[in-house]
Amino acid sequence: MGYRVVVVGATGNVGREMLNILAERQFPIDEIAALASRKSKGTEVGYGDKTLKTGDLDTFDFTGWDMALFAVGSEATKQYAPIAAKAGCVVIDNSSLYRYDAEVPLIVPECNPDAIMEYSKKNIIANPNCSTAQMVVALKPLHDRAKIKRVVVSTYQSVSGAGKQGMDELWRQTKGMYVPGQELPAGIFTKDIAFNVIPHIDVFMEDGSTKEEWKMVAETKKIVDKSIKVTATCVRVPVMVGHAEAINIEFEDFLDEEEAREILREAPGIMVVDKRENGGYVTPRECVGEYATYISRIRQDSTIENGINLWCVSDNLRKGAALNAVQIAELLGRRVLKKG
Asked: For residues 321 and 209, what is the distance between their CA atoms, to the nearest angstrom?
């Protein structure tokens, strides 16, 4: 016996990935509905070897459906998620709307699976920000061994984090560098993204940080440990898919780099590729389409008493969004609904 599953926002990058991953992982489904806005109604999307036609989110009745994976913006989520939840359909939301709600669990299954039992307060579960998701997968097993005091992270985030329009802008600007008359000014991003890096993701806040940086701080505290201090610098780079992060971790207790490497090798959701030679590390292009979060460049930080540096790479459309949502659905099925 399987589940009745809804994918909301099925025509977007993340929605399409959700459908792909549900099929790849053979999630037990008896019936699936792909929804989009009214203007996209009837658009065909792939689900394994099947083709689905999208229905109209505005008129859809969520009654009798087990779970809905939302991959739409906060405004649409604010309107439709409570409707689904009230109808008894558990919402797994990829937007930022509910992440900081004390009554909504923020879940990365490798890190805090027990928190899923809090879903019943609103019948909603939140999916974290893409940059946070891959980082906490690496932090949690190390934190369990030698408590983390402070994290300093610099991110190198692909344009797919800004959606299809961000990917299109990079492509068209890159082409415009070589084809006269096809130059494209900055639109989605605040400066040209082609052959450039932009230290600005989301809006600026009063303290000078951006909201993307604030998200990493708040979400790490909610998922792993509220006592961890986090400071982040989030940068957009001219890469289509795949986020990378340089992470400096300060622990309360000493942790040897060899032990850290072995802990990460054994941790769920992680692949360690760490050879001290040319090419002995993973880059964003190599992680595209993969489930794992890849860890490389693990080494002691000699400038502090208990420090480790590492390099963390993941497909942001997968672990950073769609895969984590499907993993939450799997966890919900095992722990709560128990149909599959």
From this structure: 23
CA 39 to chain centre: 27
Which domains are delineated in the chain?
3-128+321-337 (3.40.50.720), 131-315 (3.30.360.10)
- The secondary structure of residue 106, as a DSSP letter, is B
Instruction: Please provide the DSSP assignment of 256-285 as one string.
Output: -HHHHHHHHHHSTTEEE---SSTT-S--HH
Within the chain, how many helices (H) and strands (E) appear? 8, 14
CB-neighbour burial class of residue 310 (10 A; exposed 0-12, middle 13-18, buried 19+): buried
Task: Note the pLDDT tens digit of each residue in 137-184.
Answer: 999 999 999 999 999 999 999 999 999 999 999 999 998 887 776 667
The tokens for 145 are: 């061994």
Q: What does the mean pLDDT of the chain come to?
A: 96
For residue 5, give both structure tokens.
């599953």
Vertex 83 angle, CA 82 and 86, to 5°: 80
pTM exceeding 0.90: yes
Respond yes or no: is residue 243 known to be catalytic. yes
Is 200 marked active-site? no
Q: Where are the beta strands (DSSP E) in the chain?
A: 3-8, 29-36, 44-47, 50-53, 55-56, 67-70, 90-93, 124-126, 148-157, 229-236, 243-251, 270-272, 293-300, 307-314
Nearest to 271 by CA among 242, 286, 293: 293
Residue ranges of alpha helices (H) inside 25-155 are 74-86, 130-145
Which is the catalytic residue, given 130, 234, 287, 312? 130
Q: How many CB atoms lie within 10 A of CB 301?
A: 16
| Token representation of residue 91 | 């919402």
Catalytic residue (choose from 111, 243, 287, 312)? 243
pLDDT computed for residue 213 by the predictor: 98
| pLDDT tens digits, 45-68 | 999 999 999 999 999 999 999 999
